[in-house]
Design a protein that fits this description.
This protein has 93 residues and is mainly α. The chain is built from six helices and no strands. It is globular. The protein starts with a helix and ends in a 7-residue tail after the last helix.
């Protein structure tokens, strides 16, 4: 009986951990970075919103760099400047 109880408890723990990881997953959406457009295309500093969104989308940056439609924007000098100003290291994919 103790083995069955232990197994059930472990199964519940694993399910809870898996659910926590799913809720932390980032949805990659380059549109979320629209608040950074002004800072990328001009000399103005990035907004707090831009930096927050950039930090949220950090796990997605390599995917954006591999996308031919997005690469020119993500790899631009302006985008590198914004990433640096926000404290987000530029990815080396």
């Amino acid at each position: 009986m103790k083995k069955v109880s232990f197994f059930i408890i472990m199964a519940v723990v694993v399910m809870l951990l898996a659910e926590a990881k799913v809720s932390e997953a980032v949805t990659c959406n380059p549109g979320e970075l629209s608040s950074c457009l002004g800072a990328i295309t001009s000399s103005s500093p990035p907004s707090t919103t831009c930096c927050s969104k950039l930090k949220e989308q950090k796990p997605c940056l390599c995917g954006y760099l591999k996308n031919p439609a997005l690469k020119q924007f993500v790899s631009s000098p302006g985008a590198r400047k914004v990433a640096s100003a926000c404290g987000v290291p530029y990815p080396s994919c």
